[in-house]
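Feature request, filed as a ticket because there's no other form

It would be nice if the structure record came with a short human-readable summary line next to the tokens. Right now we just get the raw output. Example of a typical job, pasted below so the devs can see what we mean:
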Amino acid sequence: MNAPDRGAGPATTKPGRALTELPRRGFVLLVLLTVFWGINWPILKTGMPAIPVFTFRAICLFGGGLALLGLSRMLGHSLAVPRRHWPALLLAAVFNITIWHIATGYGVVLTEAGRSAIIAYTMPLWTVPLGFLVLHEALTWRRIVSLAFGMAGLAILLLTDEATTGGAPVGPLLMLAGALAWACGTVVMKKVAWETPTTVLVGWQTLIGGIPILIGAALLDYSAVPFPGLWPILALVYNVFIPFLFCYYAYYEIVRLFPVGVATIGTLAIPIVGLFSGALVLGESLGWPEYSALGLVVCALAVPVIARPRDVVIKA
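Raw output as currently delivered:
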């Protein structure tokens, strides 16, 4: 995969000060991505109780995957993947798509939408130990502090979950399993020097990883899928075209336009939107566990990418 275009280079500035020009279009995409991915957690909570998880996910994966590959062709990309990369692509599809969508699908049904969003976005934290063990990446003090913050936030959510008083907090643990799977898939993707555009890779991963979910829907849901009401149908349509098609495209376009640190910090608001949209749309209660866990996780995600202040110019 070609190195991403970081956008415009440094402009003339005062001596000793860095000045970076960041395109306005990238900020617009970042705001839309944050809102659309954030509000999807209560939307999932609305759709999945009415449409079984395997059926809901299968429709989204195949609709979104085909749309992504279609978009890739419109952008002029070849859909071919070198044969030597297929084993890694298959493994990444199992982690990033199959396990992630099953675990988080059932997890969001059993957990409040806001808590689900916070736990799901601990994914970057788990790449720290995995990166050390598999990729031999250095364990810097920032990464260690980040992991400690994230584990503290996760512990608060697990220990204060209502299900904990009667047994294991199944919903949060499923969300955690999804986050760990996503981290494993990320490490797999980082081990390969891809020569294929990212949208093509994601499209193929979505279709390949969706096959076990489609089989699960056929075996488990075929006799248990009542005709859903209007809101679950709208939730399904929204997931196919917004989170799967637009948001994936927007995310990788943001990574192309912005330095990785800026792109990562920008997405910190997604669990915040998820938490408060769950409270607004579904009436989920917010207390000290949610606020403190959110603060710890946001700090955990921010620590590794915090840079020294820079003068930033936003250009059209």
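Something like this underneath would help us a lot:
Residues 19-315 form one domain.
The CA atoms of residues 66 and 203 lie 7 Å apart.
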